[in-house]
Amino acid sequence: MKNKIRGMAYCLAMSLAGTIILFLPASGLADENGDWAFSFTPYIFAVGLEGNVATLPPAAPAEVDVPFSDILDNLDLAFMGVGEARKGKFGIWGDLFYSDLSVDADTPGPFYSGADYDQTLLFITVGGSYRLVETEKANLDAIVGLRYTHLDNEFDLDAGIFPSTDIDHKEDWLDPLVGIKGQAKICDKLYVSGWAMAAVAGESDSAFDLFGGIGYEFSASRSLIVGYRYLSVDYEDGAFLFDVELAGPVIGFTFRF
């Protein structure tokens, strides 16, 4: 059922992306003289986490559910930022997402009675873009990229049938991404924007990255963007499982130069 919902969400996002799309608020700011244009957007992603994470076989995967409203109580450290360099129809972009959080997790079955879960998650995504459509009020880009994921799972498992124990499992993997991004003006200062990306032939069984938001331009070099982001990752390697959804509101401030 979860995979079906993911597929429906991705298809819907792709079908709407021609009018509600973005990767950066600055994605339409190619220099009029054909020179390079740059932008950087530090952002806050109040991410909620839900899904299944493998612990120690034969115990069932732990069930983690942290709504974004509780994230400040569980987040130990986070850094997020996105940047782009553009010239003409071509662009180079990158996205950095880092979070370190600690939560309580349920452990179905009799083997353990619960767990304290500490997660360190890093996404580094780099790629290129090509401008497909550009008008005075809207633009649309095709994007390709490569995402590196580093995950460090630490579990303090409470005693059940098995005695209490601590485990620490680290994984690294790569996923090629394809998708679209863009933005469309509502009026002089307001615009809507978003992106839709999916992993293709990567090490994850599936991965999606969707965003939609509304922005306000204070000036040609400064703007604020507020929206909602959905990330899903389904990665499995032997007994290791990381099948989660990360979603929540996003707020960022763009600097263009």
CATH architecture: Beta Barrel
Tell me about the biggest sheet?
10 strands, antiparallel, barrel
The spatial strand order of the largest sheet comes to: 1-4-5-6-7-8-9-10-11-12
- Percent of residues in beta strands: over 45%
- Low-confidence spans: pLDDT under 50, at least 5 residues? 1-31
Distance between the termini: 45 Å
Shape: elongated
What is the domain total for the residues?
Answer: 1
Report the order of strands and helices: HEEEHEEEEEEEEE
What percentage of residues falls in helices of 4 or more residues? Answer: under 10%
Describe the secondary-structure layout.
Elements: H1 2-16, E1 37-45, E2 48-53, E3 62-66, H2 71-74, E4 75-87, E5 90-105, E6 112-134, E7 138-159, E8 165-185, E9 190-199, E10 206-219, E11 222-237, E12 240-256
Antiparallel strand pairs: 1-4, 1-12, 2-3, 2-12, 4-5, 5-6, 6-7, 7-8, 8-9, 9-10, 10-11, 11-12
What does this structure look like?
- With 257 residues, the chain is mainly β.
- The chain has helices spanning 2-16, 71-74; strands spanning 37-45, 48-53, 62-66, 75-87, 90-105, 112-134, 138-159, 165-185, 190-199, 206-219, 222-237, 240-256.
- Strands 1-4-5-6-7-8-9-10-11-12 form a ten-stranded antiparallel β-barrel.
